[in-house]
Amino acid sequence: MTGLQTILLRPGRDSDGDDIAALIARIFAEYEGCFFDRAEFPELKAPASHYASKGGRLWVAEQDGAVVATTAVFVNREPDAFEIGKVYVAAQLRGSGLAQKLLSLALTEARERKGREMVLYSDTRFTRAHAFYERLGFVRLPGVRLLHDISHTLEFGFRLPLKAGDAV
């Protein structure tokens, strides 16, 4: 397993869009029937600006100059409900603690802004991610949502109440 000592966590930039797209495409290719179509991700033209416009932030993890993980947080409902998005970690780094570090940044951001709750949505095929979210205290919401995309994606929703002082 690759160590986290070689990973740089930093704020995302608009120029990261192509690298994030490549990461997502590699991850989608791991799952049957999960296809990456760049046109379905217009936010990747300027990802940092996109999340800033939604009252949020984007982070990336770099290793040897390549984006190997990403996450974002943004306002879901004013004033105090936040959403985590773009949670992607390269296969070789899953289980390393990197996803937890990234989600911790997002949760800290929401708590510092007096967030009441965090939600996230995840493709029903990403079962390992669901177990991870549940270990962090997220509770799966009833039902699924259909994205009407090339992959016919169904997503589970997850919710985590936020309290000051909670840690991931």
Keywords:
26% helix; alpha+beta; 168 residues
Provide an overview of this structure:
This protein is an alpha+beta fold. It has helices spanning 17-28, 47-53, 98-112, 127-135, and strands at 7-11, 57-63, 66-77, 81-89, 117-123, 139-140, 145-146, 154-161. Helix 3 (98-112) links the parallel strand 4 and strand 5 (117-123). The longest helix has 15 residues, at 98-112. It is globular.
Short note summarizing the structure:
The chain has four helices and eight strands.
| Mean pLDDT across every amino acid position | 94
Biggest beta sheet attributes: 8 strands, mixed
Question: Which regions contain 5 or more consecutive residues with pLDDT less than 50?
Answer: none
Beta fraction of the residues?
A: 25-35%
Structural class: alpha+beta
The count of strands amounts to: 8
Order of helices and strands: EHHEEEHEHEEE
Count, helices: 4
From the structure provided, what is the oligomeric state, counting identical versus distinct chains?
Answer: single chain
Alpha-carbon Rg, integer: 15 Å
Q: Report the helical percentage.
A: 25-40%
Overall outline = globular
Strand-helix topology:
Elements: E1 7-11, H1 17-28, H2 47-53, E2 57-63, E3 66-77, E4 81-89, H3 98-112, E5 117-123, H4 127-135, E6 139-140, E7 145-146, E8 154-161
Parallel strand pairs: 4-5
Antiparallel strand pairs: 1-2, 2-3, 3-4, 5-8, 6-8, 7-8
